Amino acid sequence: MSSAHPPINDPDATSVAAPSPHHAARWLILATIGLAQLMVVLDSSIVNIALPNAQSDLSFDNENRQWIVTAYALGFGSLLLLGGRLSDIIGRKPMFVAGLLGFAISSGLGGAATSFELLVAARGAQGVSAALLAPAALSLLTVIFVDAKERATAFAVFAAVSGAGGAVGVILGGALTEYLSWRWCMYVNVPIAVVALLGALALLKKEPRAERSGRIDTPGTIVVVAGLVALVYGLAEAEADGWGSATTLGFIALGVALLMAFVVIESRVSHPLLPLRVVRDRTRGGSFIAVAFVGIGFFSVFLFMTFYLSTISGFAPLKTGLAFLPLIAGVSVAAGISSPLVGKVGPKLPIATGFVLAAAGMFLLSRLGLDSGYATHVLPAFVLVGAGFGFVIAPGFSAATYGVDPDDAGVASAMVNTAQQIGGSIGIAVLSALASSAATDFLADKDPSGANAALAAVESYTTAFWWTGAMFVAAAIVCGALLRHGAIETDGDAPRAMH
Questions:
Q1: 484: left (phi over 0), alpha (psi -120 to 50) or beta
Q2: Residues 408, 263: one domain?
Q3: What is the pTM of this model?
Q4: What is the C-alpha to C-alpha distance for residues 415 and 85, in angstroms, rounded to an integer?
Q5: Which of 29, 171, 213, 379 has its C-alpha lying 20 to 30 A from 117's C-alpha?
Q6: Residue 156 has pLDDT above 80, yes or no
Q7: DSSP code of 375?
Q8: Which residues have C-beta within 8 Å of that of residue 352, sequence separation ≥ 6?
Q9: Do 67 and 80 belong to one domain?
C-alpha cells in the first residue's frame, strides 16, 4: 500500500509533501468554510421557532407544518452522497460556489414566499444546495490542512461551528421572529452566503481534475436517493400516522430495501458513488456511527427543550434561544480540548467519554418537572450535554475523514453529513413517537385539560430525554468496542491505530 499520507501524530512528516496552493490563505479559507457551515447547520433549527408565525401568516394546518422542516432534511440527506461525488469529480471549488449561490437564491425565495407550497419548495432547494455545499466544505478542510496540529485546530473550529449552529439557529430565529418577522429567518442566509461566496471566489484556487473517469454512478445515485427519500418520508409520516400505518411501514421497508440494493450495486460498479473502502475501515465506520448518534442528540435536545422552555417555563422566543448558550459554550470548549487528542490517544477515548457525559446530562433533563428552575435543573444538564457533544463531534469529524484517498475526500465528507442528518431524522421520528405515546398514556384516566395537559407535556419531553440518554449509553458501548485505541496514522488509503 502507498504511504503517501503522513501519520497524524507526526507533524514533521508533512514537510515532505508538496505545498498546497491554498497554504498561505488557509486560515481565511477556514473562516469562509466556517461561515458556510454555520449557514448549513443553523438552517436545520432556525425555522423551528418561527413556525407558529409562518403558519399563521400562510394559513397552513398542523399536519402540513412538519414539511417545512422535513423538506430541508429530504433535500439535504438524500443528495449528500451525490454532492460528495460531484465534489470529487468536478472539483471542490465549483461545488462550494454552486452550493452558496443556490443557498442565497433559495433563501431569498423562501423569505418572499406567499404560500405554503412555495415555502416548502424553497426549503427543499435549500437542502439541495446544502447537499452540494457541505461535502465540498469538509473536503476542502481535509486536503488543505495536512499538518497535524493545524488540522486539529481547523477541525476543532469546524466541529464547534457544526455543534453550535443548531443553538445559534434557535437564538437567531428567536430574535428575528420576536423583533422583525419569521421571513428574516430565511432572508438572514442571503448576506451570509454572499460573504462566503466572495471569500470562496477570492481565496480558492482551481484544482486539477481528479485522476479518475468523470462518470457518475447513475444506478447507485437513483437507488440511494430514492432509498433515503423513502426512509425519511416514512419516518416523517410515523409522527402523524403512527408506526403501524401502511404508509409508514411501506415507505420505511422500501427505503431499507433500496439501501440494501445500493450496497450491492456499489460492490459491483466500476465507478461507485460510495466506494465501500471508505466505510469498511473500523475507525471511519465507528466515527460515522458516533456522528449519527450526535445527530439524534442535537435534534432531541433542541426540539423538546425549546418546547419545554417556551410552553412550560414561559420563556419568550429570544429568551428561549439564549437559554441554550451554556450548551453552545460546552460544545465549543470540549471541541477545542478533544480535537488534539485524536493525534495523541485516538478517537476512542474522547468519543466514549463524550457519550457518557451527554447521557448524564440527558438523564438530568429527564428529571424535569413543572416547577424546575433553569439555574438548578436545566443549566447543569446543558453544560454536561454540550461538553459531551463537543467531545464526540470534533474527533468524530476528524477521524471519519482522515487518511481517505484525496479522490474520495468529498464522498467521505458527505458520509459524515449524511450520518448526522439521517441519524437526526431517524432519532426525531422515534423520539417523537415515544413522547406522544407517553403523553397519551399519562392522560389515559385523567381530565386532559388544565394542569394535567401541562403534566402530560412534561411527561412526553422527559420520556424523550430518558430514551436519548439510553441511546447515548448504547453509543458509548458500540463506539468503545468498534473504535481502535491509539493515535491514528495512515496506512495507504485507510487509517489504523498505533499502539
A1: beta
A2: no
A3: 0.74
A4: 11
A5: 171
A6: no
A7: I
A8: 476, 479, 480, 483
A9: yes
